[in-house]
Amino acid sequence: MNSFVELIHITILIITIFAGLLAVIFKKLLPAVIAASAVSLLLSLEFYLLHAPDVAIAEAAIGAGLTMAIFIFAIRGTK
């Protein structure tokens, strides 16, 4: 059971690194913001798996939700 949990942690962290690289590589702003939001959402999942649900909720709400909304409004305001 312990190795299964470690496999889940490693998988989430690899996907997080991949999404972070995508956020840097993308040329257009909207896909980069979505990839950065995915990083934040995956980190909140990792915090939850590490038994820190309060940090996970804050990361999901602020990092994935509010920050993405602010970035999208800023992108829509520019040309």
Percent in strands: under 5%
Structural class: mainly alpha
Q: Whole-number average pLDDT?
A: 93
N- to C-terminal distance: 52 Å
Q: What about the largest sheet? A: none
Helix content: over 70%
Shape: flat
Low-confidence stretches: none
Per DSSP, the total helix count is 3
Number of domains: 1
Can you offer a commentary on this structure?
This protein has 79 residues and is mostly helical. The protein has one domain (2-77). It is built from three helices and no strands. Helix 1 (2-25) packs antiparallel against helix 2. The protein is flat and about 50 Å long. It starts with a helix and ends with a helix. The mean pLDDT is 93.
What are the SSEs and their pairings?
Blueprint: H1 2-25, H2 29-49, H3 53-77
List keywords for this structure.
79 residues, mainly alpha, 3 helices, 0% strand
The gist of it:
The protein is mainly α and 79 residues long. The chain has helices at 2-25, 29-49, 53-77. It has one domain (2-77).
